[in-house]
Amino acid sequence: MTGTESPEPSEQVRFGVLGPVAAWGSGGPLALAGPRQRAVLARLIVARRHVVPVTRLIDDLWDDPPERALGTVRTFVAALRKALEPDRPHRAPARLLVTEGPGYALRAAPDAVDAWRFEAAVSEARQVPPPDALRRLDEALGWWRGPAYADFADEEWARTERSRLAELRALAVERRAEAALACGGAADVVPDLDAHVTRHPWREDAWRLLSLALYRAGRQGDALATLRRARATLADELGLDPGPGLRRLEADILAQDAALDPGEGRPEAVSTTAAATALSASRLWSEAAASYDRTVEAGARARLESTVGLIRNLAVTGAGGLEAARGHRMAVIEAAEEHGDPELTARVIGAFDVPAIWTRGDDPELARQIVTAAERTLTHLPHDASDATRCRLLSTVAVETRGARTPRGPRAAREAERLARHLDDPALLAFALNGTYMQSFTRAGLAPRRDAIGAELVELAARQGLVTYEVLGHLIRLQARAGLGDFPGADAHAAAATRLSERHELPLVDVFTRWYDALRAAASGEVARAETALRVAAAHLDEAGMPGMRTGLLPLALVTLRLAHLLPPEVDLSADWGPHRPWAEALALAETGRHAQAHAALRALPEPPPDLLYEALCCVEAEAALRSGDRAGLERARSRLLPAAGQLAGASSGVLTAGPVDRWLARVAGALA
Fold first, then answer.
1. How far apart are CA 655 and CA 641, in angstroms?
2. Quick one: 27 and 123 in the same domain?
């Protein structure tokens, strides 16, 4: 069972089936013992206040009912009644789970079950203006904690209701998109709709809305490409041609029909102008590129330096640009080395000063090659090479060795920062401070140090107009203030980063603010909302082109969410744990009582990597040691977490938290005593 908070209905006892089956009372989650007891509750909710005969319950609970099935069902019902109405006087009739005729019924109020409230919200959204519908549907979609009746996916009695709710959820996503389009949010709904058609490729209305949103966002080519993709999907999967709605939309887009544009005065009314501006900019780009190609000799050094500048700009434009930058970066470094000029190579390597916030690289092998090239270039630089050139190479080494437990990274960061301060070059100092930040995870509890780095970056970058570094500074401070438990401060930096990203078209910022929203909910005790937000953030991360952040993050975040609220960790080893799997396996062994194997797994664990998830992994290890009684593991956890006393474990990642460090230290101390 997931211990969560659900939106407040009028009834004191609330039920959740939009995810694992759960129940809440005024004091929080109710203890529902065992899968069959929860199955009884779920089966009664499916019946929607109608009586379910005992014989039907027995058939639904067992393929081959035991001899005492009737008595067992009565025991389940008695235990459920005690959990749902703990204050009911002895022998007083039940008010919620009642006996009627041949069976039982759950007399829950219409607003006491999240699925019933969801159905009502979707229906009501059709009757209200678009802004109200958007707010209502946003709230309702946030109630989902996973697939409906998630723990009973294979049960025949749940199948129809699960399908009905899944269809209703898909409809809600599309109605929300319609409301957002009506409110002028064309560009905002594109990512959600793109994910939606991926999950539901046969929903023609989803394809229609995605194409319309792209068109209104000034992306006519992408809108037509989406319709072609819809046509191919429907033909390949179902052998069908697009319906009249999709065919009509394609014709209207080709004709640039004014009916596709929203009315006068709405934000989308500028979409035609935006498209024209985009076409003009594209033409200017093509003409400038052609002139450059004619003028600058092939193989010239200027071409290499211009290319790396283009790659740097690509890296901040979004997922596609980030992936393209990674694909080309080493190639241009190798091309520079072929000239045999170390200073040219140093300029090419050091020009890629793209701010980095996540401490695990997306391509470790590429990072190793870049560091090797930078070190090689440092060795071959002439004695009279400028300190600025050396500083850029050292900053590159510091950034690219992030998350690696090696003395070279911290040394390179210190030397780069020293040179940058001596040269009094703001851009150089910003790059060097990024390297210093990346090397500030050598132990737990360094959030104050990173907060100071972020504060200097914000002040320096704002004064010098270094927008991407100003955003970096705000994101660093968001992380640090969260780790220190200052959520109002973290909120302010999240808002500042968002404003800058919207003004300067830096879409990757949204990746981090989504995860921060999930962390905020987790720290506030809103477990259900936090779990939903984590899954949403992870889904968007799939599209962000950042495998170093994506791999293994969601399962770790879900486990630490439960640990933060003293719930059973429920480690799912079938998930993609990536580099965190050894910690997950040790905890899974301890959770299932295999203590000898857990001790062996704990002994084999290395110290967590020096990165944003260091404290979270320390807590996972501590939980495994607590559950298995591993004294050596407990002592390691205490020594590693002690420097972070007074902080929130893992929250300085900006994405997750395992709860207060002081509580972990107290639990460990109690176990050691």
1. 19
2. yes
Residues of the domain holding 97: 1-182
- DSSP string spanning 340-358? T-HHHHHHHHHT-------
Which of 348, 326, 327, 328 lies closest to 337 in space, CA to CA? 348
Q: How does pLDDT run across 333-375, given as a tens digit for each residue?
A: 888 888 788 998 898 898 888 899 999 988 899 999 999 999 9
Name the helix (H) or strand (E) containing 554. helix 553-564
Q: pLDDT band for 277, please (50, 70, 90 cuts).
A: very low
* Residue 644: both structure tokens together: 């972070």
Strand partners, 23: 15
Ramachandran bin of 352, using left for φ above 0, alpha for ψ from -120 to 50, beta for the remaining angles: beta
| Residue 431 and residue 339 share a domain | yes
For 146-183, how does the pLDDT look when each residue is reduced to its tens digit (9 = 90+)?
889 988 888 888 888 888 898 899 999 999 999 999 88
Amino acid found at 597: Q
Residues 449 and 647 sit within 8 Å (Cβ to Cβ): no
Domain boundary among 295, 329, 352: 295
pLDDT computed for residue 273 by the predictor = 42
- Give the contacts of 82 (CB within 8 A, at least 6 positions apart): none
DSSP three-state, residue 659: strand
Q: What is the pTM of this model?
A: 0.61
Backbone angles phi, psi at 488, to 5 degrees: -60, -40
| 452 and 561 assigned to the same domain | no
DSSP letters along 370-396, please? HHHHHHHHHHHS-TT--HHHHHHHHHH
Q: Which amino acid is at 277?
A: T
Q: Do 177 and 190 belong to one domain?
A: no
